[in-house]
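Task card 7
Instruction: Convert sequence to structure tokens.
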Amino acid sequence: MESPIERIRLSQTAKEQLLKLKRNTKIEQWNILCRWAFCRSLAEVTPPSPVPIPQDSNVEMTWRVFGGDMADILLLALKQRCHNDGYPTDKETLATQFRLHLHRGIGYLAGDTNIKKIEDLIALAIAQRKDIN
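Output:
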């Protein structure tokens, strides 16, 4: 499946927030933390605010690195979310919504004072799943 974005470059703020998450969770790979963040944002009821996001850090990855084995599933989740929010699913909209969700999710995870270790991420995911059901 063709990705909506070839290269993902994070803002400096997101980089600093991810560094905090890396220290807390001991998860060393940017892409894994970014997947958690993206899914965290998708779990929110409201769409992310359409704010400009600078691409001013040196943290960059391809869509395939970001998504890994789950790249196609994450793309389908993004398309479904855009559809649910009333947005088109053209490449530009998908890329914009992806960046907004990714950065919002990073901010949410970094701002969650309960995340002190990897088990806290798992507990958060389980709690959100229970809220959905």
